[in-house]
Every structure is written in structure tokens, then in C-alpha cells.
Design a protein that fits this description.
heterodimer, A: 119 residues, mainly alpha, B: 272 residues, alpha+beta, Four Helix Bundle (Hemerythrin (Met), subunit A), 2 domains, four-stranded antiparallel sheet, 6 helices, elongated
């Protein structure tokens, strides 16, 4: 964990008018993330119009960009790159159940009762 | 009695209490949206060949809304950073921007919803389908029978599947069509509204309205909280700036989560 990160521990605000030098650095980083998110949005739209051959590739590309954008939002705007262990523990449980939910859907595709009419 | 650990970190968690609370709440939100996303996957994969819509939503409008929400995320994080730097004036400015952007997002979403509710697909007695946006509705229900007419701007198709992939039917010529009540198949007492592209239209519109509606409720809820912190609760800054800053961080975490959900909703619903 980065102890200098703004989200580390309690959020202690400096006295009125005082400027934390660490923050101008962080603010610049937030702006870069913002530009990256805008760029990612344009790439997502552009890539959706490229004829990749089949729709599965379009889906994979769009989701890959969405995951990259979500990582930027989670990592920097939500400070997950330098959080306390407790937050990671909560998220680990969430990820476990979320992945479980998605796998249940995948498994259900192969589980049809006999005589099911498939279109 | 003072509420403990609103500013200082609790020794066992290493965090102030509200932060543990918001992350637990966001975990439950992940599962809520996850359940709806999995429903989307089931509906999409289970759809018959050629019956899953493509190109039904306006991509430039959706892109604009995505940019609006991303911009609101940076203004949110800048509002919090301003608090951390002790610049209350800048905090007020950035969060005023966040509120304006939230209203813009909801406004654009309302426009999109209106577009769907005024879009009709009428089955006709000759077996064709009239598809288009409402221009004039002069249908009347008297003595248990419909009379009058409806005017749509759109086109007619022989096969309903032609309406599902609009990417392949971009060149369809749209013109005004006057359709008499007697020409509409299955027009019962409930009226013509059930032929609109509302949530009842098909499974795609059902999941579209459910996902985006729930997301829009989150935007509205988040905007109310941010507005409350920006307005009446801003007095706390004078009394306890650290606690106020923490509140801004908590509301910001929720707002970024709302942005994060939209990052997935946009390509899934608009582009794929």
C-alpha cells in the first residue's frame, strides 16, 4: 500500500487554505485517467463498427476495453490501487460470488431437460 | 454521544467506519447489477436466430451520455481533492458541475425513453408490419370499438425480422403512413400503446429498460446525496472539515460505481 496515497487510512484534510503538495501530483494523475477514459470511449465506439468477421470478436473487444476503463475508474478514482486490506477482502468475496453467478449462467446453457425444443 | 470512527481509522479495519459501510454496500450493488447482467446474457443467448435487436439505440446519443458521466466522475474526484487541499470554493464549483452533469445525463436518458415510447410497431391485417415514430394519434375507442387513424413516420416490412437488425436496413425510406384503426391487427381495449417500444415490446426492451432504469435511479439517488452535501450539509466544512471530506469521499465512491456500471452498459446495450 502506498502510504502517501490520499485514500490511505483516514482522510485527514489539511487546515483551511493549506495545499498538500502530494495532491497536485494526484490531481494530474486523475486528469490523465480522465483523458484515457474519453479515449477508451471513442475506441469502443470505433471498434464496434469494424467488421471483425464475427460478432463474438466485437463482443470480446468491447468488453476488453470496458474492463480496462473500469480498472482505471476503480484503481484511480476509487483508490483501489492503494487501499486497506479490509476493502480488498470485501472485494475478494464479491468477486467470488460474482464469478460464481456468471458461471452458473454458463453451466445452465448445457443443462436442458429431455425433449426441450431448441430454436 | 459522538459517533465513533467518523474521521480516525478504526484499529482493526484500518478505515473509518463509513468507508467499510460503503464498500459493503457497493458489494451488494455489484451482485444486484450482476444478476441483471446475467439475465441479459441468458435472454440474449436464448433468443432465436435473427430475433435479437441490433442498432435500436442511438449510438451518438449514448456516446454523449457516456462522456457526460465520465466527466461527472472527474468533477467528483476533483471536488474531493479540493476538500483535501482545503479549497472549499473549488469543491463547490466542481460539485456544482457534477450536479449539472447528472441532470444532463438524466435529461438525455429521458429523451431516449421518450423516443422509445413514441416508436410503434403495428401488426397489420394484411400481414405486414408498420414501424415508425408517432406523428399523430386520432384513434378513438367508443362502444367497444376503435375508429379513427394513427400517423407514423417510418416504413412497412413484410417480415418482422427486418426490424431487428437495423444495421442491415439502414437504407429503408422513412415516410408518413396514415393507418386506419380497422387496418391494425389485434387492437383491443388496452389501446395502441402496447405496440410501442416500451419494456413490454420484447425481451430486449425489457432488459434495456430494467438495466438503464435501475442505473438512472442510482444517478438520481447519487445526485440527491451530492446535492445535499453541496447545499445544506456544506456547513459541516466549517465545523469539522475532515469529517466533511470523508463524506465527500463516500458519496464519490458511490458515484464512481455508477459510472463503472455505465461503462459496461453502454457497449452491451448500444454497440453489440
Amino acid at each position: 500500500m502506498n502510504p502517501s496515497h490520499p485514500a490511505s487510512g483516514s482522510a485527514a484534510a489539511p487546515a483551511h487554505g493549506a495545499v498538500d503538495p502530494h495532491f497536485s501530483h494526484h490531481v494530474r494523475r486523475y486528469l490523465y485517467v480522465f483523458y484515457a477514459l474519453l479515449f477508451g470511449t471513442l475506441i469502443t465506439v470505433g471498434a464496434s463498427f469494424i467488421p471483425w468477421g464475427n460478432r463474438e470478436v466485437n463482443i470480446a473487444v468491447a468488453l476488453a476495453i470496458a474492463i480496462a476503463k473500469a480498472s482505471l475508474v476503480g484503481g484511480y478514482f476509487m483508490h483501489l490501487i492503494s487501499e486497506r486490506k479490509m476493502v480488498y477482502t470485501i472485494l475478494a468475496f464479491t468477486a467470488f460470488f460474482f464469478i460464481g453467478l456468471m458461471f452458473l449462467i454458463l453451466w445452465s446453457f448445457g443443462d436442458f431437460p429431455r425433449f426441450t425444443v431448441k430454436h | 454521544m459522538d459517533i465513533p470512527y467518523t474521521v480516525e481509522a478504526r484499529p482493526d479495519t484500518g478505515l473509518y467506519n463509513a468507508k467499510v459501510g460503503i464498500w459493503l454496500f457497493l458489494a451488494s450493488e455489484v451482485m444486484l447489477f450482476g444478476a441483471l447482467f446475467s439475465s441479459y446474457i441468458l435472454l440474449r443467448v436464448g433468443a432465436r436466430e435473427g430475433y435479437w435487436p441490433h442498432g435500436w439505440l442511438n449510438v451518438p446519443v449514448g456516446t454523449a451520455n457516456t462522456i457526460v458521466l465520465i466527466t461527472s466522475s472527474i468533477t467528483t474526484v476533483m471536488a474531493w481533492a479540493s476538500c483535501k487541499m482545503g479549497q472549499f470554493g473549488k469543491f463547490k464549483f466542481y460539485h456544482a458541475c457534477t450536479l449539472c452533469l447528472a441532470l444532463t445525463f438524466v435529461g438525455i436518458k429521458s429523451y431516449e425513453y421518450h423516443d422509445k415510447f413514441t416508436h410503434y410497431e403495428l401488426p397489420l391485417i394484411d400481414g405486414k408490419f408498420a414501424d415508425g415514430h408517432l406523428v399523430e394519434n386520432k384513434l378513438r375507442y367508443e362502444n367497444k370499438a376503435w375508429s379513427g387513424y394513427i400517423v407514423l413516420k417510418g416504413h412497412k416490412v413484410e417480415d418482422r425480422r427486418e426490424l431487428y437488425d437495423l444495421h442491415t436496413h439502414k437504407d429503408a425510406k422513412h415516410e408518413e403512413m396514415k393507418i386506419e384503426a380497422a387496418q391494425i391487427k389485434g387492437l383491443d381495449a388496452s389501446g395502441v400503446w402496447r405496440f410501442s417500444y416500451g419494456p413490454w415490446h420484447n425481451t430486449y426492451t425489457a432488459i434495456y429498460f430494467t438495466l438503464t432504469g435501475l442505473h438512472a435511479l442510482h444517478v438520481i439517488g447519487g445526485a440527491i446525496v451530492i446535492g445535499f452535501l453541496w447545499g445544506p450539509l456544506a456547513r459541516l466544512w466549517q465545523r469539522d472539515p475532515e469529517r466533511f471530506t470523508n463524506r465527500i469521499e463516500i458519496s464519490g465512491l458511490f458515484w464512481h460505481f455508477v459510472d463503472l456500471v455505465w461503462i459496461f452498459l453502454f457497449p452491451v446495450l448500444y454497440l453489440l
